[in-house]
Design goal:
Blueprint (H helix, E strand, L loop, with lengths): L22 E11 L11 E7 L5 E10 L7 E9 L2 H10 L6 E7 L5 E3 L4 E3 L4 E8 L5 E10 L1
Antiparallel strand pairs: 1-9, 2-8, 3-6, 3-7, 3-9, 4-5, 4-8
C-alpha cells in the first residue's frame, strides 16, 4: 500500500470485508394514480422519497398497468424533486418544481401495460420527493425503479 502525504497518512491495518457496493435498486411499488394533470401541482400523487445519499447517478424506470380500458391516451409519469429546505419551500409555497428529474410513459387504448424509456440523471441532492401524474382517463397502478450508481 502506498501512503499519501502526511496530511492524509494512513496508519494501522486497513481492510474491506465483503464486496463494496457500487449500485443499489430502490423500488416504489404499486402506487395507484387516478387521472391528474402533470401541471396540477396541488393534486400530484405523493409517492414518498428516494434516498440518493452516496450515489452520483440514477437511472429511472416506470412501468404500470391501467385499471380498465383507456379511452383517452396520455402519459403517466414521475417527477422527482429534491427534498431539501429551500426547494421544498418553493414547492409548498409557490408550487414550483425546482431541479426536477422526470420519467414518463405513454399509455394508450391499445395496451393494458406500459413502460418508460430509462433516462439517466446526475444526482445533486441526497434525497428526492417522488410525485406521480396520469393524463389518461383511467386510474393506473405504477411501479418506479431508481437504479442508483456511482
Amino acid at each position: 500500500m502506498t501512503n499519501l502525504p502526511e496530511t492524509q497518512r494512513i496508519e494501522g491495518m486497513v481492510s474491506v470485508t465483503g464486496p463494496v457496493k457500487h449500485a443499489a435498486l430502490v423500488m416504489i411499488a404499486e402506487v395507484e394514480v387516478p387521472p391528474v394533470p402533470r401541471d396540477d401541482i396541488n393534486r400530484l400523487i405523493d409517492a414518498g422519497t428516494v434516498s440518493t445519499e452516496g450515489f452520483g447517478a440514477v437511472v429511472l424506470s416506470l412501468t404500470g398497468q391501467s385499471k380498465g380500458q383507456i379511452r383517452a391516451a396520455g402519459e403517466v409519469g414521475a417527477i422527482l424533486v429534491p427534498d431539501v429546505g429551500p426547494v421544498s419551500r418553493a414547492l409548498q409555497e409557490t408550487r414550483q418544481l425546482q431541479f426536477p428529474l422526470e420519467v414518463k410513459a405513454g399509455a394508450g387504448a391499445d395496451a393494458t401495460f406500459f413502460s418508460s424509456d430509462q433516462p439517466r440523471y446526475v444526482v445533486g441532492f441526497p434525497e428526492y420527493r417522488v410525485m406521480l401524474y396520469n393524463t389518461t382517463d383511467k386510474t393506473v397502478v405504477v411501479d418506479l425503479f431508481a437504479y442508483l450508481t456511482n
